[in-house]
């Protein structure tokens, strides 16, 4: 795998794989599978196709000529699947976020990477692009016409819980009322976590440190720090880092990350609720991880063109950074 900086993003075919500086892969390895690397409206942006600009948006137009699995500019809502290989060799699957495009992500990437189920779910926050696929979780659970299965744990803040109780009341209900028909729905076991790095939680043997970040000045979203052997931070929705959070993931603070996965929305300027490219690259420089992959991109980003720019930037700054793409699997020792 000889791409610059150790990333295998150059030729996308059936997802692409990357072992980079981590492990060699194979059945005994943990891996990170990027189920989605796009913004809330996803890419292509539907408006670009039904009301094309003049000249047309080349990134969105690609979706009409290239199948999604060979189009790194086809981006679903941000979501990461952690395939965790435990010490006994058992593989379990931890899903971060279940957005509007979850079903499409299952159809495309669970089949390609042979993922049979989801064992645990973690939510960063309760926005539509992080939770509106929760209804479809039933397709990644065992089948039972009587809902008689072990519920899948979902880790989320109380704030997110209150919002989901309004969006999906039927996913919280326990007992049927008198005369009410049984209907098959996802079986979920809600587990409240705190927006506090001191309050870590463990699911399926993997410990997670919540990383509170500002996502618009009136809102806290969570990133997560995980991995005992390789330290990985996943931060999908951020407009500003509180100093205490940044310290936990910085080389100059709690120690250098092996991998930083970080939000970037637009190419230029700034945005009130997300990092854009300039703020993302500034943050990468300050945090100084061994490697970084960017997610959450709009149609302003062209995968190949902007990764060429990033290859130059990486050489100059000494930190390998690339745009991730949907389907990318990175083998990593967790
Ligand atoms: Zn477009
Ligand atoms: Zn959000």
From TrEMBL:
InterPro entries xrefs: Metallo-B-lactamas, RibonucZ/Hydroxyglut_hydro
UniProt keyword annotation of Hydrolase present: yes
Hydrolase keyword on record: yes
Domain Metallo-beta-lactamase: 94-296
Gene Ontology molecular function, alphabetical: hydrolase activity
Keywords, sorted A to Z: Hydrolase
CDD domains hit by this protein: metallo-hydrolase-like_MBL-fold
Pfam families: Lactamase_B_2
Stated name of the protein: Hydrolase
């Amino acid at each position: 795998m000889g791409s610059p900086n150790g990333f295998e993003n150059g030729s996308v075919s059936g997802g692409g794989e990357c072992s980079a500086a981590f492990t060699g892969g194979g059945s005994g390895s943990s891996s990170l599978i990027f189920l989605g690397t796009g913004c809330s409206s996803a890419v292509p942006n539907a408006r670009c196709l039904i009301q094309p600009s003049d000249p047309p948006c080349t990134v969105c137009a690609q979706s009409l000529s290239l199948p999604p699995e060979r189009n790194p500019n086809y981006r679903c809502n941000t979501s990461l699947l952690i395939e965790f290989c435990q010490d006994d060799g058992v593989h379990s699957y931890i899903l971060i976020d279940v957005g509007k495009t979850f079903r499409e992500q299952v159809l495309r990437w669970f089949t390609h990477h042979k993922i049979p189920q989801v064992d645990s779910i973690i939510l960063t926050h309760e926005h539509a692009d992080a939770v509106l696929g929760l209804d479809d979780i039933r397709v990644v659970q065992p089948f039972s016409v009587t809902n008689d299965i072990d519920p899948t744990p979902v880790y989320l803040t109380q704030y997110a819980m209150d919002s989901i109780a309004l969006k999906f009341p039927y996913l919280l209900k326990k007992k049927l009322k008198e005369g009410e028909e049984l209907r098959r729905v996802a079986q979920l076991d809600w587990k409240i976590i705190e927006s506090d790095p001191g309050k870590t939680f463990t699911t399926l043997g993997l410990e997670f440190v919540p990383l509170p970040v500002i996502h618009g000045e009136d809102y806290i979203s969570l990133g997560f720090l995980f991995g005992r052997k390789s330290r990985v931070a996943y931060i999908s929705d951020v407009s500003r880092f509180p100093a205490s959070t940044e310290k936990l993931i910085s080389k100059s603070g709690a120690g250098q990350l092996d991998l930083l996965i970080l939000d970037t929305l637009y190419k230029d300027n700034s945005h009130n609720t997300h990092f854009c490219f300039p703020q993302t690259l500034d943050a990468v420089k300050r945090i100084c991880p061994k490697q970084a992959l960017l997610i959450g991109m709009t149609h302003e980003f062209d995968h190949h063109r902007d990764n060429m720019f990033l290859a130059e930037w990486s050489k100059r700054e000494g930190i390998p950074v690339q745009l991730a793409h949907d389907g990318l699997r990175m083998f990593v020792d967790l």
